[in-house]
Fold:
Amino acid sequence: MHQYIDRPEYLQHFRLDNPFVEACMPQYTHIGDVDVPLSAVFESRVQDFTLDVLSPYTSHAIGIIKLSLEPSSAKAPSSTLKFNVVMHDMIGFAEREGTEVHGQLFIPPASNESGVTTTQMIKDFDEGPIRFESVHSMSVPMFGPTDVSLRVAIFAKVSSMHLDKLLSWDDMRDNVPQPKQKRKGARISESQFFSEEKHDVFAKIQILELAESGDYPPVEVIQTSDLDSGTFQLHQGLQRRIVVNLTHNSGDALPWQDVTGLRVGHIRLIDHIGKSPDLSSSSTPPLPLKLLSKPIVKSNANGTTNVTIVGQWDSSAHESLLLDRVTADKYRVQMTLAWDVRSEKLARPMTFTMDVCSQIMSRNYVRSTSMFASLFQSVRIVKSMSGIFSVTVRPTPVKKAGDLWRTNTQNDYVKGEESLTNWTPRGVSLIRDFIAAKRRKQRLAELDAAQPLLNRITLPPTKSTNGSASSTNSDSETNDESDPTSQYTPAQKSLLEKYIRLFQLCRNPTNSILSHTNVEPPISGAPTSSSTPSILETPPTPHLLASVTKITKNPTLLRGGYLLVPSADSTKWVRRFVELRRPYLHVHSVPDGEEVNVVGLRNCRVDHQPEIKLLLKGGGAANGRNGNGGGGGALDGVFAVYGSSNTWLFRARNEREKVEWIFKIDMAYFGRGGGSADASGEE
Structure:
């Protein structure tokens, strides 16, 4: 459920405080299924069935049910075939496991409740048969497929004994090791596993225009609300440059090589609500921009990585009147800005796309700086436009059975897994059980479909022989039975022996693919590509694929305020304005209010007393001597947010503010409104 934390439209349907307990628990539990083939219905004949009731959780029989299919003489449309289902009884399910047993009959897929019929609830049957003794009228399309089946779903009000049996079944089928057991084999690096990764990339866009001094200062961006990304105020007929600054907090987990392909295209006119008034306008092809210098990827001491690219933008090359003339009032010109980022971990470059809005003003336009006029305007003036991208890195499908262990996600951390204590999920045996149950259902369906035909086949009567004939031929039959190959020539014998040697039983490939050596990590460590393994040899980098998604800003502000954060070189505390909008902490510079970075709270852990703060003693980041807002020598108010690939330190003014921030961050992730700050920090 926590994977939807960056998608509020999905998250509103979930409860993150305790997803294992529902507010309205169902009264009855689904305990078994039966699939009945309907071939007898299309042949207008009566057929009795004795079938196993398979549990949807274990795929093993929990009982045996008896029912019959009979043709129906009720009136029905010409395209519908009516039939009756006679429910007899069910044996093998004791009442100590569940009572009020009843069945629901339908032909999957059941689109509405009108196609579902229910038996009566049976109780007080103890260990005897559950007698339904009911008749249900159903129908199927006459000219539909004949391989359809009737689904009988069994429900009951189960007891704790039935639930304990399900838990013991998991322990018996998949004897998974406890989390605190010692590692049996050599430790394998995380780079050897093919696991899905998620990274957050912060993009900052600026448009520079040529000034009278010959410099290129950034143009102003007007934001009308907190959710408005802003509108660039461009001047008509000036040379421009586009600056793209990218930052991510994943460190070496997402290495960058180069940024190429900066381009601008798809120019259109939109109104104040974001709709295009002219839908018939032709789409503008992307225009590549020439970069002024080669991008340089810089890794900072705080674990962040950033790169800046500057491209020359000649807006007249688009041949669009929207960029050449002054934009009308209450209208904006929207264009799509895209660029590609190459990484040594990825097989293909990552493509980032962002919509940028602008207004073309006259060349001599100057914004009014009157303080009296600013009192009646609810706008904010900044120098850049920002955006957040979520990069999901997925491995390509495994092509060799020997590499299945690389997709093992047993050691991947999931937020809240510490609440499960010693419980562990099922492993590869769950896949084996599913394949075996599917094969068993297919065989039973084939046998039931062929049973009427087999019943019609009668064996010819054996010919009676008199005693004299049998006594006369007894010696010859004895000789033939003693040597069955006596009737073949030596050439025929050699040919038969050759075919017997070549004949091998066709084994199920699933058993060989899902063997223990393929699905479990090697005990001796990860294998090397060369015949003479070396410790210094780097493992082969897997070919990974990345998908980029633009994340919209959450309109709900949980908390905002000033905090101190370490600088890029971790030598001093820097004062920032931080906003908590699920699932990110938006960090803004002071006092201009520019958004400079985001902190992802996906799979994070909050620590109210981080041990890492002891390393800051004696440095500038500890006492705030070189900071913009630091004060005092004590390290009070410091808390840490541990992410999947980086750690962020924050410092509040006092312990009270620190407790409030920790509580809000924890509540933002778990969605609960209670708890103490200490508990939040421990989690």
The chain has 14 helices and 29 strands. The longest strand covers residues 258-271. Residues 197-394 form a domain with the Immunoglobulin-like fold (CATH 2.60.40).
